[in-house]
Amino acid sequence: MRKITKEVAEKIAELAGRPVLTDDNGDIVLKGHRFVMMGVKYFPYGLGGADSLRPVLYQLGERIGEEFYKRYADLAGDKSMALEMVFGMAVYQGFGTFEIMDEQKDKIVIRFHNSFEVASYKANTDKESDTPVCHLTRGILGGIYSTYFGKRISVKETSCAAMGKQDFCEFEVEVPKE
Questions:
Q1: Long-range pairs for 43-48 at CB < 8 Å and ≥24 separation?
Q2: CA dist 93 to 28, 90, 96, 108, 135, Å?
Q3: Is the preceding peptide bond at 176 cis, omega within 30 degrees of 0?
Q4: Whether the predicted pLDDT of 73 surpasses 90
Q5: Per-residue model confidence as pLDDT tens digits over 127-176
Q6: Contact call for residues 132 and 160 (beta carbons, < 8 A)
Q7: Can you say whether the dihedral through the CA atoms of 54, 60, 66, 69 is positive or negative?
Q8: Sign of the CA dihedral running 53, 158, 114, 97
Q9: Which of 66, 84, 119, 160 is most buried per CB count within 10 Å?
Q10: What are the domain boundaries of the chain?
Q11: 157 has which bridge partners?
Q12: How far apart are CA 43 and CA 133, in angstroms?
């Protein structure tokens, strides 16, 4: 048996010009939580049958969003700062970049650039999508804002880069009535 050690990972990182992200056990750990990395070709659209995965991806996203928000709410101590930290961490982790385009009393409009879900879709097909594809991201936003508002809310992807009309995705977050 031959164990692949951190030394090998360091040599690969040196060749690639990138830092080593793992500890001695091969884990990527941020703030005490273990992460894995995989290419966008494989997740989620490399799984095939992505249409049937919509509800699963959304529900998974909701759980991720709830956990993200709770983690950073505890650190920030302030609801607004927690949102900033959540979006900052999502950018840091490679989800893409976000812009809050509009905040109204009934909705928040978020623009999302460089979506990993769009990249996955495009890596697995040569055609534009007829419908939005960012179900995990939509769920993550739903989980974040449901936890933020303390009520279950809905999120709709109103435009998607996978549909070919623009190079960003846009989401409308429902703001609950007080």
A1: 43/120, 44/117, 44/120, 44/135, 44/136, 45/117, 45/120, 45/121, 45/123, 45/124, 45/125, 45/133, 46/120, 46/123, 46/124
A2: 11, 5, 8, 23, 18
A3: no
A4: no
A5: 899 999 999 999 999 999 999 999 999 999 999 999 999 999 999 999 98
A6: yes
A7: negative
A8: negative
A9: 160
A10: 1-37, 38-174
A11: 171
A12: 12
Q: Was domain 38-174 assigned CATH 3.40.630.30? A: no
Amino acid code (one letter) for 128: E
With beta carbons less than 8 A apart as the criterion, state whether 168 and 86 touch: no
**Quick check: 2 pLDDT over 50?**
no
Query: Tokens at residue 120, please?
Result: 């996955």
